[in-house]
Write a structure and sequence with these properties.
Blueprint lengths: L2 H12 L3 H10 L9 H12 L3 H13 L35
Helix pairs in contact: 1-4, 3-4
Pfam families: DUF4287
Protein name: DUF4287 domain-containing protein
InterPro entries: DUF4287 (IPR025629)
Length: about 100
Amino acid sequence: MSFQAYLDTIEDKTGLTPRQLTEIAKQKGFDDPAVKAGTILEWLKEDYGLGRGHGMALIHVIKNGPQIDAKHVGTTGSHRDESDMLWLDGKDSNPNTSN
């Protein structure tokens, strides 16, 4: 599953866009470099029912922003992304996909 597909599924599961979840995480201080991934995963599981894979994709965005390594762009296979910038504002408004 691509990073973007993880984020789109998170939106389906939670009803919140990745940007909204990222803002909530920042309000909780989870963007602080000292906060461990396990703490964030626990929050995402308890409050939103997200598993580890989806949680780790969101943690990347919380900690690093929407840019991913270009090595994931244009490759073949299930982990392929269309762009090195993830879309955080809702899958239905993503200009990079045809919904």
